[in-house]
Amino acid sequence: MDPEVPGGLGENTVLDRADGESPTVHRLHFAFSDWLRGDLLMSHPVYLVTEPLATELASSGLSGLALSQSLEVSGDGLWEQLHPQRDPPEVWWLRINGEPSRDDFGLTEDASLIVSARALRLLRRHRLDRARVTRVD
Length: 137
What we know:
The chain is α+β, with helices and mostly antiparallel strands and 137 residues long. It has one domain (7-123). The chain has helices at residues 51-58, 77-82, 117-123, and strands at 7-9, 14-16, 24-27, 29-32, 40-43, 46-50, 65-68, 72-75, 91-96, 105-107, 113-115. Strands 5-6-9-7 form a 4-stranded antiparallel β-sheet. Strands 1-4-8 form a 3-stranded mixed β-sheet. Strands 2-3 form a two-stranded antiparallel sheet. The longest helix has 8 residues, at 51-58. The radius of gyration is 15 Å and the shape is globular.
């Protein structure tokens, strides 16, 4: 899946970059530029979900994920121009810890999101207008 990308990693993000591997994020600061109301969001290598999706995921029994509210969210300069009277949305950090084809949520070596058919059914009950879904058999 390639979800909506409404911003990027903010200046307070702390990560490690190992040669040939996707960065590991230890502290997340997400800076919104814009948001088209999707419930599943990303900025390489992290994934975010809105409150309604986080609530359903938390009680779903799906494997390969952990939800965290331990992140900083802000708007960048473009956000301030486009939405001067609005705060960025509240989101949860969707931490993927599963393996593709074994768990419901997993990441490839380049941090692309792979989900099971069961997880995709749950995700499709939410707003994924800007997400691109590619079927892999």
